[in-house]
Predict the structure.
Amino acid sequence: MTVDSSISVPPVPAEARPDRATLIVYFGALIAMFMATMDMQIVVTALPTIAGELGNLHLFGWVGAAYLLSTAAVSPFYGKLGDMYGRKLVVMTAIVLFLIGSAICGMAWSMESLIAARVLQGIGGGGLMVSAFAMIGELFGPRDRAKYQGYSSAVFALSSILGPVAGGYITDLFGWRWIFLVNLPIGLVVLAVIGLAMRRRSSGKQHKVDYVGGLLLAVATTSIVYWGDHVLEPTGADLWTFLLPVLGIGSGIAFVLVENRAAEPIIPLRLFRNHTISLVTGVSLIAGSVTLGMFFYFALYLQTLTGLGPAEVGFLFLPASATSMVISMAAGRVIAATGRYKWMPVAAMAIGAALMVGFVFIDSHTSLWVLGAMMAVFGVSMGLQFQVLMVAIQAAAPLSDIGAATGLITQARTIGASLGLAINGAVMTWALTQQSALLPAEVAAQVPGGLTALGPHLATSLPEAARQTVLGHYSAGFNVMFLWVAALYAVATGLTFLLRDIQIPKRG
């Protein structure tokens, strides 16, 4: 057995089961995480109704993007503040900000006011997610936390499933404002639970908050995430398309220079001297691009290919969510029992690579049960990596930096998802443009704008012969993207092979 010498985890008193107070705080953390992650998706099905009432349809995409941008920008900041001042004060502040943002969202009088409120809500939501994962890392010992992080990943997957469904039902029954206002009673209960049950930790040490580093990191992250969203807009390239990457890279370089001199940096650069932390961060960046950054393209491809409606295609995603939940919980229990985890992300990335190659062989004649089975396999890949990588980075980080490490991996996934949407989309657009040029003239005339403009409704309206020709070229274009994503999975597989086969220690 080899043990990563950089792991620094103080002995935790052995106990058969966590005490009641610990479990109460744990469940409070799960509910807080559920609220924050659900609000990423709950607004999707309500957006048409919101835009219809508030107007400014051209801004409706920002209702979702504003939450994502602010969440990504503040994640590392919350992690570090929790390390410095204790998790209780930080998570309670995040809950208050989230609830204030939710209340203003529910009372929004214009699209602009709703977007501004979503920024505030996202600032709180980012703190909820990072603090919840970090709280779990502090509540339980190195190996036990794998089991409880597995349950948290199941909650994350469940909120992703329920979000769009709940948003639609709440909007139909009570109006769209209640998709935000429903957070208030739940959040107040969580606030009371954490306030009463969680002990406040304070070292009494005077801390110096790295505001400059936090600002630079927020600018770098926001620039990259916004660029990923901006390049997908149909307006074509503009000044922001080229300016945002420069701003993001420049802020990132300045951030590194500031962190080298900061007394208490937002992300201590010494963490990257740890073999496991460096590799897990890199793998998480790629994982975000090939998983979270692919859901949009899966939905588009499957709906266009099958001719099914949005709700029916949504059912094809249920196997992915279900298997992801089950595998996450099972993986957590295996790590808790054995202390070993390396084989899981290796298997996850290898399965993902093979699955993307498998997508090359599907077409409009592929049975729905085959597509559902493939999405289930996609869920297996996710279940073997997301929560496992969180456990790995928390086990490798010193306990005093567990919040910073948690914020780091959360941010890496968010940036990866944004870059995945942009780069994977660019590959797809290029390939579809090439395939458009290969369409017979009589068929091309029936697809104005080419294959890049092909939507599910247009595809189903075509005569059957033309439809099969168009879908054949459409699949050929998507296949290029699938092979590109398979190559990314292969790179991630190679990186996970480089992880040391350590055994996480038991409770002391």
